[in-house]
Design brief:
- The protein has helices at 30-40, 100-110, 125-130, 153-167, 199-205, 211-219, 224-241, 252-258, 260-267, 269-286, 314-317, 334-342, 364-375, 393-407; strands at residues 3-4, 15-20, 44-51, 54-57, 66-69, 73-74, 114-120, 135-137, 143-148, 173-177, 290-295, 324-328, 350-354, 381-384, 409-410.
- The chain is an alpha/beta fold.
- It has a single domain (3-191, 289-410), classed as Alpha-Beta Barrel (TIM Barrel), CATH 3.20.20.
- The strands form four sheets. It has an eight-stranded parallel beta barrel with strand order 2-3-7-10-11-12-13-14, surrounded by five helices.
- Helix 13 links the parallel strand 13 and strand 14.
- The chain is globular and about 60 Å long.
């Protein structure tokens, strides 16, 4: 028989946010936002504030069902005096007639709802093409124009300026996406490889050997020259004759295939990422705004050891600086990744981000189970991606999943 579990969390203690673009809420009645949030059972919005290029299918779009997003723009009018460096923000065309972020913040205040600014920091092709010397440079000297390098001082200056600008705009938190290094395959048009590259080769092709990364390694006593020679040798061999290990990548492969200097060089990237996140956190803290760091490892069904924050130790190292670890718990590995995070940081600092839609969920029951799986680790904070991309029935699934946990019903 059903019974009430005394350990079941009160619904009022659940923090649930809905990821979205600002477009639908710009110049819309406040009641529309209130209705969407109520239907989903969410108590906050996480709104794209700086975003990358995309072509999206919008199942319930108000102005068409296929949208091309502007690349690397801000959904607010930036205060340009804050940006002294080479990297300059550009406002969306939406800003010609209105203030998208400001409109959302104002409407949310009327709904007694918090707004988190969702900021894609370093995945910015527009900026990379404008100032290519600030992007990732691989061992062959190729620039990866879609990714800014976290070690570059100009990039750090841009991140700090952008953060300060957004903190001043009435948001309660910043959800920082792409505040780290990236893999090779990440969001450029028609990426093509007509040879069978191993996962290790793909990893090494995006390993940055720009002057700033080399200097950071040298300061840590690491032989960047030896690392570069080892990486180039492995890649040259695989490009010439193949033979790369086609097993799933893990960091142990770096040392076994490329030697200790390369392993040390890769590990030193954590120092770079940690420094950038801490500097960002100091700005948000000073402004009374929380910092969420998004780790998209789960979006690729990957293990934390090869996640975008690079090592499984990173969440622990950042625990005092970051208010929330937003973990993309997608695909078949989502629960496993949440479990690993739960062993490293306070579970109150974990937000489990889920997709109530294809390919993860085809029914309300699927999402209910995913939320329950997260609850087993004590996680009470959730994010649901992405309002504009889901069918409207997914709002009901979100509410069902949150309500199922609130009710505490078990068979």
């Amino acid at each position: 028989m059903p019974h009430t579990d005394p350990d079941s969390p009160d619904r009022s203690t659940t923090d649930a946010t809905l990821y979205c673009y600002p477009h639908e809420f710009v110049n819309a009645p406040t009641d529309h936002m209130r209705s969407v949030l109520a239907r989903a059972g969410c108590n906050s919005l996480t709104v794209a504030t700086v975003y990358h290029t995309a072509r999206d299918l919008l199942p319930h779009g108000q102005k068409g069902r296929l949208a091309y997003l502007e690349g690397g723009v801000t959904y607010f009018r930036p205060e340009l005096s804050r940006y002294p460096g080479l990297l300059q923000p550009k406002p969306s065309a939406l800003c010609d007639e209105t203030d998208p972020l400001g409109d959302v913040v104002t409407a949310a205040a009327d709904c007694d709802t918090a707004v988190t600014a969702w900021v894609v920091y370093l995945h910015n092709t527009r900026l990379g093409k404008a100032v290519p010397e600030t992007t990732i440079m691989n061992v062959f000297g190729d620039r990866i124009l879609s990714i800014l390098c976290p070690a570059n001082p100009q990039v750090g200056r841009y991140v700090e300026s952008l953060t300060a600008d957004i903190v001043s705009r009435g948001v309660s938190a910043i959800a920082a996406e792409s505040l780290h290094f990236h893999p090779l395959e990440h969001g450029y048009h028609h990426e093509r490889y007509f040879i069978d590259l191993s996962d290790l080769a793909k990893f090494l092709m995006a390993l940055c050997f720009c002057d700033h990364c080399r200097l950071g390694a040298k300061a840590a006593g690491i032989d960047a020259g030896a690392a570069a020679a080892q990486v180039r040798s492995v890649l040259d061999t695989e490009f010439a004759v193949g033979g790369g290990d086609l097993e799933p990548f893990d960091l142990a492969m770096v040392e076994s295939r490329c030697g200790p200097s390369t392993a040390e060089y890769v590990a030193n990237r954590d120092v770079t990422v940690e420094s950038l996140v801490r500097r960002t956190a100091s700005i948000t803290t000073a402004g009374g705004v929380d910092l969420e760091v998004i780790d998209p490892a789960g979006s690729l069904d990957e293990d934390l050891e090869v996640g975008f924050l690079h090592t499984a130790a990173m969440p622990t190292r950042l625990q005092e600086s970051v208010s929330t670890n937003a973990v993309l718990a997608y695909g078949s590995s989502g629960t496993n990744i949440l479990g690993r995070y739960a062993t490293q940081v306070n579970v109150d600092q974990i937000r489990a981000v889920m997709r109530p839609m294809f390919p993860d969920c085809s029914s309300s029951d699927d999402l209910v189970q995913r939320v329950r799986d997260a609850r087993q680790f004590g996680i009470r904070r959730f994010g649901f991606y992405h309002y504009d991309l889901m069918r409207l029935q997914a709002l009901d699934w979100i509410n069902d999943a949150l309500e199922a946990e609130h009710s505490g019903c078990r068979q």
